[in-house]
Design goal:
Blueprint: E1 3-7, E2 10-16, E3 23-27, E4 32-37, H1 43-52, H2 54-65, E5 80-83, E6 86-94, E7 100-103, E8 107-112, H3 118-148, E9 154-158, E10 165-168, E11 173-177, H4 185-197, H5 206-215, H6 219-228
Parallel strand pairs: 2-4, 6-8, 9-11
Antiparallel strand pairs: 1-2, 3-4, 5-6, 7-8, 10-11
């Protein structure tokens, strides 16, 4: 159960979970604040702890507020789009044919029927993004299953407003944000490893951090790079 603690204009999502230590986090892009504490922690104790970190909370929120964001996309000729961390120029062709997207070394070529609006073009591009991820994700999961000693029952792709990924340890599936197709492939791998590690440690506990340290030592650098890259126009949260 989530309880809201208020420190002036700052709302903190407070939850009690089976962890040993208090975990305070500020999440991009909006600067949402969460605090996880061991079972039995009184609200006033959690609030007092948050007060001691108020300066840090505000500094993190200011940093996220200044992070670069992508301009809204209209899916027009010579518009910039990113795939796997590389920038491409979009070429749009209108003709009576099935919509499709093709990629060469410097262009994304979008074919749509005459009169197609930006919403339809966006759907075609999103379906293409998903197809690229479906080509990349299974191999990465298969690579990491024996290393982590876990088995992913299924994965799902979807637009996610506040997360790069999520995990359901009971059902043993992970969800991935389709925006990851725009980021370098190694950052997709980092998010996959992060979510697969949650099959072993559901919370961001010290044991979870130790798992990442042991199996993916560069995870902090990957997280920092993901945080530094431009956000989508509507914003995303890194994990």
């Amino acid at each position: 159960m989530i309880e809201i603690l208020r420190l002036g204009e700052i709302a903190i999502e407070f939850t009690r979970k089976p962890v040993k230590h208090v975990h305070l986090s500020v999440h991009p892009p909006e600067g949402r604040v969460s605090l996880v504490a061991p079972p039995g922690t009184r609200s006033e104790v959690a609030r007092a702890y948050a007060i001691t970190r108020l300066g840090w909370i505000r500094a993190q929120q200011e940093r996220f507020a200044g992070q670069a964001r992508e301009a809204p996309r209209r899916f027009q000729n010579r518009e910039s789009h990113h795939v796997w961390g590389r920038r491409y120029l979009l070429t749009v062709e209108e003709r009576e044919a099935r919509p499709e997207v093709r990629l060469d070394h410097r262009r994304i070529m979008l074919t749509v029927r005459p009169g197609s609006d930006s919403a339809l073009r966006a759907r075609v591009m999103h379906d293409w993004h998903k197809s690229l991820l479906h080509q990349a994700v299974p191999g990465l999961i298969a690579r990491w299953e024996p290393t982590l000693g876990v088995k992913v029952a299924a994965y799902f792709l979807q637009r996610m407003k506040t997360k790069w990924g999520s995990c359901n340890p009971d059902a043993r599936y992970i969800r991935l944000n389709t925006e990851l197709v725009k980021k370098p492939r190694d950052l997709l791998e980092y998010v996959i490893v992060h979510e697969m590690a949650h099959l072993l440690e559901p919370t961001h506990s010290a044991a979870f951090v130790a798992l990442l340290d042991r199996h993916y030592p560069s995870w902090k650098e990957a997280r920092a790079e993901l945080n530094a890259l431009p956000l989508a126009a509507e914003g995303r949260e890194s994990r």
